[in-house]
Design brief:
The complex is a heterodimer. By secondary structure, chain A is of the alpha/beta class. Chain A has twelve helices and 17 strands. In chain A, the strands form three sheets. An eight-stranded mixed β-sheet of chain A has the order 1-8-7-3-4-5-6-2, with helices on one face. In chain A, helix 2 packs parallel to helix 3 and helix 8 packs parallel to helix 11. By secondary structure, chain B is of the alpha/beta class. The longest helix of chain B has 20 residues. Classes of the chains: A alpha/beta, B alpha/beta. At the A-B interface, helix 5, helix 6, helix 8 and helix 11 of A face helix 2, helix 3 and helix 19 of B.
Chain lengths: 387, 465
C-alpha cells in the first residue's frame, strides 16, 4: 500500500498559510514563469532555481546544500519516493505533514469532499465524522485547478459529498470548466437527489461525462436501511435515482457483497432489472476490510468462495436484462469462469496487493488482487494459484 | 393484487405492472389478514415487488407508476403499422388462407395509385415517430409496380417529415426477381415470408401450380439473404392438422435454415380457414400439446447452447419478466386494432386489422372503418365501429378479464371474439383465445418455477424483443 499522507522530516517555509497545494515538477527546464507556483522534486545536485518549493527525499537529504539560496523546502521520508511529475501534494506547515492529493500515473484519483455522512454503513471504509470540514471543499477547488487536463477520470468521494449541496455543485462546475475532458464519478448515497430542485440544478451543470454511483444493498428496504444504519435510506435513494434519470443523468448502482447483502442478491438483481433497467451500470463489489468492517466483521464476513454461485446467478440475471454489469474487487480464483466477461481489475492502485498464496499464479496479471486492508485483516482461505 | 390459481394450493399473485410472485394458500390468508411479520422472507418479497408498502414509503408508488407508464407508453405514439393490401391475387392457393384469389383480373383485385396516394395521406397523419408500411396480399409482388410507387412516394413525402420509416413485403418469395431484390436493397425493405415445415408438409399446406412452393421458398431465401442481408428475411409458420404430429421436424427445419426462432402459430378462424373447415380440424387442447412439445424441444436446444426462441413465448415473457410491452397487437389492451395497426385494403376499404378485412371477405363488415377515398382521417379513426370495439373489449372493465390475474399479460382481441362468438367481449369461459393464453401463462410460470435454468433462458428471451 502506498502511503498517501503523514509527517515529514523537515519543512522550511516562510509561508503564512498552513496548508499549501503544489503541483510537483521534475522538469529541470520548466519555463521560469511556471516555476513560481510549483514544487520541484530534487533528484541530483543540478537544481534549477525559481521554484516556489523544493521536495527532497530523506535518502538524498544532503542535496539541501544544492538548493538555491533562501529556498523553501520539505524533506520527505522514503515512503514518498513514488511522487512524480505533475502529482499534486499538500504541505501543512503546522502539522509538519504532507498529503498526496493527486497522482498523475494513477487511474483512480479520488477527491475527498467531506467526511460527514447521513449513512453509518456497517462496512464503511471511511467512517464519518460530524465536524465542519468545509476546508475540504476549498481544497478540492484548489486541487482541480492543478490537475492536468489529460486526466481520464476523477472520483468525488466522502463521506457524503452532496451534503454540501450547492457548494458541491460549484465544485462540479469547476471540474467541468478546468477539466473538460475528464470523466467525473461521484460516490453518493443518492438521498440528496430525492430533491427535484437539487437534481435539476445538478443536471443543469450539463457535464458531458459525469455519473453518480449510488449503493443499493437489498431489494428489501428494511435490509438496505439496516446495512446503512439509516431510516428511509432506501426510499430516498430510489427516489434519487428516479430523479436523476428523469433529468437524463448517468447513474451507477453499486452493491457491496457481504453476509448482509448476499442473502437477497438474486432478488436485488431482479428488482434492478424490473425497476431500474435504465441505470447505466451495475457494480457488484467485494468487501474492503477496513474502517467499520473490522469492527463488524462477524456480521459481514462471508468467504467469496461460498457465494460464487450466487454471484454468477446475479450477473446472469443482470446481463439477461441487458444491463451493463461489472464485478469489482474479487480474486480470479474465487469466482466462477462465467464471471470472466464482467470481471474488472478495480482496486485502486495505491491499496492493491497480492498475498503469498498467489506466488507462482499464472493469472496474476489478470487478477484484481486484494485491498491492502484485506491482506492485513483477513481474506479467503480458499485461494489457489492458477498453475 | 390480482390472484390466479395455478395449481392446487398455490396462487399466482401479480399487480398492474406485471410484477408477480407465487404464494401458498395459507400464506395468502396471512397476507390478506395482515398477519405477516416483517422478518419473513415473503414480507420482503412482497415489499420488493410493491405488493405491500409501509406507511412512509414514497418510492413504491413512483416505481409502480413508472412501470405502468412504460408499459402503456406505446399508446401515445398511436398507429405505427400500416398494411397496404396491394392485390388479392396470389400464385398460391393455400386452404387455410383467408383472402387470396387465383385470378388474372387486375382491375377487380388490385389497389390503384389513387387509393395508394390517399393511403399515404392516412399513414402520415399518424403522430408516431416510427412508421412501418407492410405490403400484403395476395402476393404483393404480383402488383410490384404499385409497391415501388408507394415506397418512392412515401420516401419523397418523408424527406421533409423525417419519420423513422420502414418497409416490409409479406411474400411467398416465389416471384422474387433480381429487379425486386435490387429495389428492396436500395430502399432497405425487409421480407416476411411463410414456411410451414419440411418440404412435404410445406407443399401440402401451400399448394401452387408446379407443386414447388418449398423449392421456390428455399431459392428465394438464399437469394434474398445474399442480397439483403441474412437477417432481412423472416418466416412465419401456420399450424395445420398435418403439422401436429411433427413439431420437432418443423422446428428443425427452421433451425437448419439458420433462423434464430420460430412462431408456433395456430390457425386463425377467418376467411377460407372457416369455409374449408380447416379451423375446426383441431381443438385448442391439441394445439397446446403441439405448442408445449415444441417449446420443450426449444428449451432443450437452448440448454445445449443453441440460441433459438419461440417467438410467441418471447412476447409473453417480455410482459411477464420486464417492464416493457412488446406491442404485439393480439396481446394489447386497449386492443391494437385500428390504433396500433391499420389496414388499407385493395378496394380502398380501411380495416381495423388484417383479421378485419378477412372477416369482410366472408361478408362481415363489422370492422370496416371507412373508405380511403370517401372518408376523412377523423371519420375513420373516430368511427363508432372502432371506438365501440376498443371500449367494449377493454380488459380492465370486461367481465372476467378485469379480475383475471393474468390481465396484464393478455390482450383484448375484439375482432377474434366477434368473429367466433358474435360479439367483441364474449363469455370468457367459452373463449378459446382465453383458454389458449391462460394455459400458456400457467405453463410458462410452472416451467420457470420448476427449473432455474429455464427461468434464466426465458429472461434472455424476454429481453430480446
Amino acid at each position: 500500500m502506498l502511503k498517501l499522507g503523514g509527517r515529514v522530516v523537515e519543512i522550511k517555509s516562510q509561508e503564512v498559510n498552513n496548508n499549501e497545494l503544489f503541483s510537483v515538477s521534475t522538469k529541470e527546464d520548466l519555463p521560469k514563469v511556471l516555476r513560481a507556483s510549483r514544487a520541484f522534486l530534487v533528484s541530483d545536485a543540478d537544481v534549477p532555481e525559481g521554484f516556489k518549493h523544493y521536495l527532497i527525499l530523506e535518502s538524498v537529504a544532503h542535496l539541501i546544500n544544492a538548493l538555491p539560496v533562501n529556498s523553501e523546502y520539505t524533506v520527505l521520508p522514503q515512503d514518498y519516493s513514488y511522487i512524480a511529475d505533475e502529482d499534486v501534494i499538500r504541505i501543512s506547515k503546522d502539522k509538519s505533514s504532507i498529503r498526496v492529493l493527486y497522482r498523475a500515473s494513477s487511474p483512480n484519483n479520488g477527491i475527498l469532499i467531506s467526511e460527514q455522512c447521513n449513512h453509518y454503513c456497517l462496512m464503511c471504509s471511511q467512517p464519518p465524522k460530524a465536524i465542519d470540514d468545509s476546508w475540504l471543499l476549498a481544497e478540492a477547488a484548489q486541487l482541480i485547478k492543478l490537475i492536468p487536463q489529460y486526466t481520464r477520470e476523477i472520483i468525488f468521494t466522502g463521506g457524503e459529498p452532496t451534503l454540501y449541496g450547492g457548494k458541491f455543485l460549484d465544485i462540479l462546475r469547476l471540474a467541468k470548466s478546468y477539466l473538460p475532458n475528464t470523466s467525473v464519478h461521484i460516490l453518493s448515497n443518492g438521498r440528496s437527489f430525492k430533491s427535484d430542485a437539487f437534481t435539476k440544478s445538478y443536471s443543469l451543470i450539463d457535464h458531458p461525462d459525469m455519473m453518480v454511483g449510488i449503493p443499493i444493498y437489498s431489494d428489501d428496504p428494511a435490509q438496505h436501511d439496516y446495512i446503512v444504519q439509516a431510516k428511509e435510506a432506501f426510499d430516498e435513494a430510489i427516489l434519487g435515482i428516479l430523479n436523476l434519470k428523469k433529468y437524463e443523468q448517468k447513474v451507477e448502482v453499486r452493491v457491496v457483497l457481504h453476509k448482509q447483502s448476499i442473502g437477497r442478491l438474486r432478488q436485488l438483481c431482479e428488482f434492478i432489472g424490473r425497476n431500474l433497467l435504465f441505470v447505466d451500470h451495475v457494480a457488484l463489489m467485494g468487501l474492503e476490510m477496513t474502517g467499520f468492517t473490522r469492527a463488524n466483521l462477524d456480521e459481514l464476513w462471508i468467504d467469496p468462495y461460498d457465494y460464487k454461485d450466487t454471484l454468477s446467478d446475479a450477473v446472469k440475471i443482470l446481463a439477461g436484462y441487458g444491463m451493463n454489469v461489472s464485478v469489482y474487487n474479487h480474486q480470479l480464483c474465487l469466482v466462477n469462469d462465467d464471471i470472466a466477461p464482467y470481471y474488472k481489475k478495480s482496486i485502486s492502485d495505491w491499496k492493491n496487493e497480492y498475498v503469498e498464496e498467489c506466488d507462482g499464479c499464472k493469472r496474476l496479471s489478470e487478477c484484481g488482487g486484494f485491498f491492502s486492508s484485506g491482506v492485513q485483516n483477513g481474506y479467503s482461505k480458499k485461494l489457489t494459484a492458477f498453475k | 393484487m390480482e390472484l390466479g390459481k395455478i395449481r392446487r394450493g398455490f396462487f399466482y399473485s401479480l399487480n398492474l405492472s406485471g410484477e408477480f410472485t407465487v404464494v401458498k394458500n395459507n400464506e395468502l390468508d396471512r397476507v390478506v389478514n395482515h398477519q405477516l411479520s416483517p422478518d419473513e422472507p415473503l414480507y420482503s418479497d412482497l415489499r420488493s415487488r410493491q405488493f405491500i408498502y409501509e406507511l412512509n414509503d414514497k418510492a413504491p408508488i413512483q416505481l409502480l407508476a413508472l412501470k405502468v407508464r412504460t408499459k402503456l407508453s406505446r399508446l401515445a405514439n398511436f398507429t405505427n403499422l400500416h398494411i397496404f393490401v396491394v392485390t388479392l391475387r396470389c400464385d398460391h392457393s393455400c386452404p387455410y388462407c383467408q383472402v387470396s384469389r387465383q385470378s388474372e383480373d387486375k382491375a377487380a383485385f388490385d389497389m390503384t395509385k389513387e387509393m395508394a396516394d390517399k393511403g399515404l395521406d392516412l399513414v402520415f397523419r399518424s403522430p408516431s415517430p416510427a412508421l412501418k408500411i407492410e405490403f400484403q396480399g395476395g402476393e404483393p409482388l404480383l402488383n410490384f409496380e404499385l409497391v415501388k410507387y408507394i415506397v418512392l412516394e412515401a420516401e419523397k413525402r418523408n424527406e421533409s417529415l423525417g419519420r423513422d420509416l420502414a418497409f416490409v413485403i409479406a411474400t411467398t418469395l416465389s416471384l422474387l426477381t433480381d429487379e425486386v431484390l435490387d429495389f428492396c436493397k436500395a430502399h432497405n425493405i425487409y421480407l416476411s415470408s411463410s414456411l410451414d415445415g419440411v418440404e412435404e408438409l410445406h407443399n401440402t399446406n401451400r399448394p401452387r401450380a408446379g407443386k414447388n412452393s418449398y423449392q421456390k421458398f428455399i431459392e428465394g431465401l438464399d437469394k434474398a439473404r445474399l442480397s439483403l442481408g441474412f437477417n432481412s428475411v423472416s418466416a412465419l409458420m401456420t399450424t395445420t392438422e398435418q403439422s401436429l404430429p411433427q413439431v420437432k421436424s418443423v422446428i428443425d427445419e427452421y433451425l437448419r435454415l439458420g433462423f434464430n426462432g420460430i412462431f408456433l402459430r395456430p390457425l386463425s378462424p377467418y376467411g377460407f380457414a372457416i369455409k374449408t373447415k380447416k379451423y375446426r380440424a383441431y381443438n385448442t387442447e391439441r394445439w397446446l400439446d403441439f405448442y408445449k412439445e415444441g417449446l420443450a424441444y426449444i428449451i432443450e436446444l437452448n440448454k445445449s447452447g443453441i440460441r433459438f426462441t419461440e417467438q410467441y413465448t418471447s412476447l409473453i415473457l417480455t410482459k411477464m419478466l420486464t417492464s416493457n410491452d412488446p406491442g404485439f397487437v393480439d396481446l394489447m389492451n386497449p386492443s391494437g386494432a385500428g390504433i396500433a395497426a391499420i389496414v388499407i385494403n385493395y378496394d380502398g376499404g380501411v380495416y381495423a386489422s388484417d383479421e378485419s378485412r378477412m372477416l369482410a371477405e366472408m361478408g362481415d363488415e363489422s370492422f370496416r372503418l371507412g373508405h380511403i377515398e370517401h372518408n376523412t382521417y377523423e371519420e375513420i379513426m373516430l368511427s363508432d365501429k372502432l371506438l365501440d370495439a376498443l371500449e367494449d373489449s377493454f380488459t380492465l372493465s370486461v367481465p372476467m378479464c378485469s379480475d383475471c390475474a393474468f390481465e396484464p399479460y393478455c390482450g383484448a382481441e375484439p375482432v377474434y371474439h366477434h368473429a367466433v362468438y358474435g360479439d367483441t367481449v364474449a363469455r370468457k369461459p367459452e373463449s378459446e383465445f382465453c383458454k389458449r393464453n391462460m394455459a400458456i401463462f400457467k405453463h410458462l410460470i410452472e416451467l420457470m418455477r420448476s427449473d432455474a435454468e429455464t427461468k434464466q433462458i426465458f429472461l434472455g428471451w424476454a429481453n430480446r424483443c
